[in-house]
Amino acid sequence: MWRRLYFLLILVRIYFAFSPSYLHPDENFQGPEVIAGRVFSYPVHLTWEFTSENPIRSSFPLWLAYGSPMYLLRWLWEGFGYEEVAPSVVYWALRVLMLTLSIVLEDWAVQELVQSPRQRRVAVPLVASSYVTWTLQTHTFSNSLETLLVAWSLVLIGRIVEDKKHSGVFASSILGFVAVVGVFNRITFPAFLLVPALRLLPHFRRKPFSLVFLITFASITTFIAICVDTAFYTSGPFKFTSLMKHPIITPLNNVKYNSSTANLAQHGIHPFYQHVLVNLPQLLGPAFPLIFFPSWRATMRLLSAFSGVLLLSLFPHQEARFLIPAIPLFLSSIRLPKSYTRTWIASWVIFNVAIGVLMGVYHQGGIVPTQNYLARSNETLSHVLWWKTYSPPIWLLNGKNENLDTRDLMGMPGPKMLEELSKVAPCERKGLLERLAGSQKSVYLVAPRSAYFLKPYAQPNASTEVKLEEVWSYRQHLNLDDMDFGDDGVWPTLQRVVGGRGLVTYKATKTCR
User: Fold this and answer.
1) 216: alpha, beta or left? (left if phi > 0; alpha if psi -120 to 50)
2) Cα four-point dihedral sign 416, 421, 423, 428
3) Which of 407, 422, 421, 398 is nearest to 512 (CA)?
4) Structure confidence by residue, pLDDT tens digits, 440-483
5) Among candidates 125, 142, 127, 118, which has minimal Cα distance to 33?
6) Is 433 helix (H, G, I), strand (E, B) or coil?
7) What angle is formed at CA 184 by the lines to CA 86 and CA 142, rounded to 5 degrees?
8) Number of neighbouring beta carbons within 10 Å of residue 407
9) Count of CB atoms situated within 10 Å of the CB of 33
10) Which cellular component, as a GO term, is one annotated location (predicted)?
């Protein structure tokens, strides 16, 4: 029975993996967009993490996770005689990659970590039925990669400790490699392993050869990672003299940056209890109370999850996705309540289906389809202004961003947004004449349909100075950052945001005298 249920949950995971929701800009800007610009020469936008004097993001794990499959895809594409790979193909190929890694590596790790067949029949379906697994784990987040690295580090630690007859040289060597990749991927990685790693001390005392191999492979991987980052961030051909004079050690830069409260304040300061009292319930739902009453003794994965959450709570900037590595560890350690079991299961299903559809389908769901539409459009564009959305991934524009100015106006006040739009919008009358001549470039505004401020400007025969003509829309889009309960009230806000769901692409013109 549980195997059929697990197969059904894999189908659910596949559905969400192929839904174009956009959970956070970092799933593009801190991963695929960076590497796609190098592999396919797409014009890309590099964020400050990669352009500052002391860059804090390592390219080493990005090359391993995304660069290798991109090169393979390019080789296959060219081998079949096609032209350059379209960005949309790369985008969905990476979704397939993350889906595959989730099903193979995450579920495999859970099966290894939960050794009791009876407990495994509960743990595996619970992890597979979590909306975190459906959505966040199938997107290209560094946190999603961290989840896999943490889980397999625990598997390797378990293999080393449990093998009393051998030194565990192979597992120790792989652990040294995985640990370094984890640190270069995210500096939060050690928080989940500090306590479980203590179990290795008695083994290393008995089998010091195992420790030698771990340190050796960790050192080699560290050296390679520093070389890759130094070459990535240094203009011109890579030389070892550059490595000696100015090595780029991104984890060190990251620690220095995040040690400053002033730097963290730019990204949001949260109370110390944010992770425990807000973020964990948001990720676990009805399972949250159960993590404090596990089904058996304090396992290594439970210690890893709790220590990771508590250590990350020491830092004032706390986002829910930082805790993704702890979710499969918690869910594989809980015991279903003996009383009201069916009620709990019903609440678990309702919670994950509701949040899964919200986050996996509708959350900023129109951004990627809109970029793909703009990439296919035959319209000659000069500017595309995005308002009240997440920052769009410009690498999906299929090279059009070389001549197309994409501006992210974020949550700019409406009147100010119209000023910016008016500066670049073509004159309506002049636009008609030049369009007939074939030389007029269009300006688009992309905004949620729930932005009712735009309604007067989108009416037919509007008498406003700026006029908007709807040219394309995507229905499955919700802008959860446009909730104005204080001014509009709860019900009117929900009516506007949910009832006005969708992302609209407008052609903008203005009346010129």
Assistant:
1) alpha
2) negative
3) 422
4) 789 999 999 998 889 998 888 777 889 999 999 999 999 887 76
5) 142
6) helix
7) 45
8) 14
9) 24
10) endoplasmic reticulum membrane
Instruction: Give the position of tokens 């269009």.
Output: 442
What pLDDT sits at residue 484? 64
CB 99 within 8 A of CB 144: no
Residue 325: pLDDT band by 50, 70, 90 thresholds?
very high
Please report, as a single letter, which amino acid is at residue 99. L
pLDDT average, residue stretch 39-58? 90
Task: Read off the pTM.
Answer: 0.93
Q: Given this model, what pLDDT does residue 298 score?
A: 63
Residue 409 has pLDDT above 80, yes or no: yes
Cα dihedral 458, 464, 465, 467 in deg (nearest 10): 10
Element of type H or E holding 464: none
- Give the separation between CA 36 and CA 90, rounded to whole angstroms: 8
Q: Which residues contact 462 (CB under 8 A, 6 or more apart)?
A: 456, 468
N residues, the chain:
513
pLDDT for res 488? 65
End-to-end CA distance of the chain: give it in Å, rounded: 73
Cα–Cα distance for residue pair 312/318, rounded to 1 Å? 8
Helix (H, G, I), strand (E, B) or coil at 312: helix
Structure tokens, 469: 């003509």
384, 406 contact by CB (below 8 A): yes
The one-letter amino acid at 289: P
